[in-house]
Design a protein that fits this description.
The protein has about 300 residues and is an alpha/beta fold. The chain folds into 2 domains: about 190 residues, 3-Layer(aba) Sandwich (Rossmann fold); about 80 residues, Alpha-Beta Complex (UDP-galactose 4-epimerase, domain 1), CATH 3.90.25. It contains 9 helices and 13 strands. It has a 7-stranded parallel beta sheet with strand order 3-2-1-4-5-6-11, sandwiched between helices. It has a two-stranded parallel sheet with strand order 7-10. It has a two-stranded parallel sheet with strand order 8-13. Strand 4, helix 3 and strand 5 form a beta-alpha-beta unit. The longest helix has 18 residues. This is GDP-mannose 4,6-dehydratase. InterPro entries: Epimerase_deHydtase, NAD(P)-bd_dom_sf.
């Protein structure tokens, strides 16, 4: 039975990945600094799951990494803006050192489409010019990871996934789709200021399937865009929510709006090299999210 490590395991995407790995029969180590880790309540029922509460930037990582075939680095940069960049770089560097010492075969890094910083559709070979601290932290961490696989003597290969807008159960309530769905359900207007533009929402189970594909794709070091197959404007997204729920979305827009940037990506490499084809359409994904959160009004 192969052993897998997931950093950021208590988070939105990380916890769904843990669940999928356990269902596939892997031994899974979930690492996070969250002392509660409620998203992993289901995973704790599996005997082959181990939760390690640790800080990537400070704690010893050798025991968690030892014996792992694949490490999924899904820990996100910290919310504290002042330390966002330095903390994520330190955490990533320390994890990479531990992976090399433990002879990990493959590292999969969760990057983001925000590294492009300009209108799309963006290809993986296009220059990256992040315009936010979060995007910059992801870009530099991505390069740190990929560089470890370049030397001819490197034992570890690396795949970076530039995720678009992932949504689904367990997502933070402050994200766009949870706020829109909550507005439809509660009839409380949502502020959509600054949210115009195009997007490619990807349901979380499809995001996890891309990570599983990245663990086995035959490459030394590679980057893949991962996003939903539907590109929609904000108005079109609101229309789909209405069609799915039967409820209109009350919203407000405060003041003049900044010029929108289309955050979209080209998916050719994901389809034909990674072998990842999103299965969940936007209406189906929103319907699943609507039903999954119907009794959890605070997180809907």
């Amino acid at each position: 039975m192969s052993r897998m490590l997931v950093t950021g395991a208590a988070g939105f995407l990380g916890s769904h990945l843990v669940d999928a790995l356990l269902i596939h029969g892997f031994e899974v180590v979930g690492l996070d600094r969250d002392p509660v880790a409620a998203n992993l309540d289901g995973a704790r029922h599996y005997r082959q799951f181990t939760y390690v509460r640790a800080d990537l930037g400070e704690d010893e990582l050798g025991e968690a990494v030892t014996g792992c075939d694949t490490v999924f680095h899904f820990a996100a940069p910290p919310v504290r803006q002042a330390n966002l960049f330095t903390e994520h770089m330190m955490a990533t560097s320390r994890l990479l050192d531990a992976c090399e010492e433990a002879s990990v075969r493959r590292l999969v890094f969760a990057s983001c489409a925000g590294v492009y910083g300009r209108p799309g559709p963006n290809r993986e070979t296009d220059p990256v010019q992040p315009t936010t601290g979060y995007g910059l932290a992801k870009q530099v961490a991505e390069q740190l990871c990929l560089c470890r696989a370049i030397p001819a003597e490197a034992a570890m290969s690396v795949v970076a996934l530039r995720y678009g807008e992932v949504y689904g159960p367990r997502q933070q309530p402050a994200a766009l789709i949870p706020r829109i769905v909550r507005a439809a359900r509660t009839r409380t207007p949502v502020d959509l200021s600054g949210q115009a533009g195009h997007r490619q929402p990807l349901y979380v189970t499809d995001a996890v399937r891309a990570a599983l594909a990245a663990a086995t794709v035959n490459v030394r070091e590679a980057v893949f865009n991962v996003a939903g197959r539907h590109t929609v404007t904000l108005d079109e997204l609101l229309d789909v929510v209405h069609d799915v729920t039967g409820l209109s979305v009350p919203f407000t827009v405060a003041g003049p709006q900044p010029e929108s940037v289309d955050v979209t990506v080209d998916l050719f490499n994901a389809y034909f090299l990674l072998g990842h084809h999103p299965r969940i359409s936007l209406p189906d994904g929103l319907r699943r999210y609507w039903l999954a959160t119907r009794t959890v009004s605070a997180g809907a």
